[in-house]
Structures are given as C-alpha cells and as structure tokens.
Amino acid sequence: MIVKAKIFKKYPKKYINYYKKYGYLLIKNSLSKVLFNNIQKSINSNLFKYSKKKISKPLNSPELNKQLEILRKKNPKKFSYFFDTLQTSTALNNFWTDNKTLQMIEILMGCEKSDISATDLLLRIDSPIDSRNKLDWHQDSAYLKEGAEKTNQPAAWIPFLDVSKNNGCMQVIPGGHDPSRVLNHKLEKKAGVKDSWYLYIEDKNIPDEKIVTCEMKAGSVLFLHQLIPHRSLENNSNEVRWSVDLRFQNPKDEAGFHTGLVDPIIMRKSDDPNYIPNWDEWFKGYGEEHTKFRGSIHKDKFDSTVDGTWLERWDTEK
Ligand SMILES: O=C(O)CCC(=O)C(=O)O
Ligand SMILES: [Fe+2]
User: Is residue 112 classed as helix, strand or coil in its secondary structure?
Assistant: First the structure.
C-alpha cells in the first residue's frame, strides 16, 4: 500500500494496522528536497576529492555515473574511501536524524515522543549490472542474534532517486512476517557466490503469487517489519542506485547487532527534546568494532575476507 505522508499522519491508526497486518508500508512525499540536495552536493564534492573531477550534477546524470564507474574500476581503494567518507558525512547524518522520518517511526512504533535508537545505518551504492550487491530474499532478523526478532524493529529503506524494476527496487511478501518466526536462511557463499556474506531464503519457500514490487519516487520511504521477507532486484540501468537503510528500536530492547560491542545510536530522548546524537563519537566506536568484525572498515567492500556472526548462525555444516 502506498500512502501520502499527510494522510498517514491524519489517520495513523488505519496505517499502523496495515503495517501490523502486512509487515510493510510505503509512504510517499515524506522527505524534504533539501535533504536530497545536500546528499547530492556531498556526493559531488567527495567525488572531486577522490577523483579530482569537478562535477556538479544530479545523481542520474551520465557524467556523474561515468565518473563513479571510472573511480570504482580504476581505483577500488579510493572508491572505498569515497564510500566511507560519505557514510560518515554530515549530509548523511542529517538524513538519518531527519525529523520527518523519526515522526513516522514514532507513529509506526506507537510511541509518542519516545526514546528511539537506530542500528545498522547503511549507505548502499549499487552499481549497474553488478549482482554482487543484490540482496536475495531474506528477513532482516536473520542477520541478528537469535531472539532479537522479538524486538519491534522497523527498518526504513530510502532511495535517493526514483527506483523501478529496471534499476532494482524492493519486493516484499505482504503478511510474510506472520506467524512470527525466522525462516530458514542459507549462505550465499556456500551456494557458489564467492566472497558473499549475504543470506538467502530458498525460492521454494517464497510464495510467488504474493510478491509485491515496490517502485518508489525519491522522497518516499519504505518501512519494513523486521520479519517480512524482502529482496532487491538487480540494477539493470546505466545509473548507480543510491539508497540507505537503517533499523529503529527502543534503546532498551535487544538490537541483536554488534551485541556487547557497540550499542545502537540514540536518536531521540523522551526527557531531552534538544538532544542531538554525537555522530563522530558513535561512528568511531562503530568503526573500531566493525574493524574487528569485518577485518577493516577501510577495505574494499568486495574484499574476500568475510565474517559476520550471522554466517555462523546459518552455517549448517559447522
Ligand atoms: O538495498 C537493498 O538492496 C536491500 C537492502 C536490505 O534489504 C537490507 O539492507 O537489509
Ligand atoms: Fe533487508
């Protein structure tokens, strides 16, 4: 179901019920243009920093996409730095903490003026015709510690440009989060996808006739229940598909991610309306733990050393 942000705010009960029943909700016209303009500026200026090409173009421009391709192919290390710099940029921090998103989360989680934290905040740069990045059918909870699926933990998936079947939008199985359980997941790397740290649910466990394809305009947000099966399609366009995703929760609940290593970042405090998260400090801790966990935060995203607690969870041959 697609609903305009205004209508969602006007009739929250109706849409909370929809989310509870189907496990997802697509809200359009929900984010301001300024956020996207700042992201674009940040991408342009960082591309200049790492490729020395001055470009001031929208994300769908051929020039910008050509430059990204060149940097990625010719200098994967620099591309990796480019990625890390963007991931921790002010433009992106502002995106994560955007008031409008947090308001929608408060409504969905049924917690007026609440304590909200977030985890697994990830920028994705999905290059054209590169299936290495594509995420097959999964439930987000499968990547977490067993038991964490009980935490009310909606994810927000937000593309920076319009997404369609052609450039790899998301697909969901409405109602697939009910009954509440983590389906069996397999390891892609055991299925021959070298270096992959992704999991997948076998197609035979996905009811084809139920698949809903979520094409979206920039400015829309797709909210996903932690247990809804979903996947992204391959990017068959000529442009990079930019998106972010993050999971929200009550800070008191088990996050199931980096447990005991780094806590989710607090986004809102009910007793302190002026609270602003300290991103630098949090990313520092996160980076350090990520280094232990994935080898190095600065290595190429496609480096072959793969690690991750979820790989152990689903490794049936251990
Ligand atoms: O952006 C995508 O391709 C999928 C993102 C996703 O489902 C995830 O990060 O859990
Ligand atoms: Fe996911």
Answer: coil
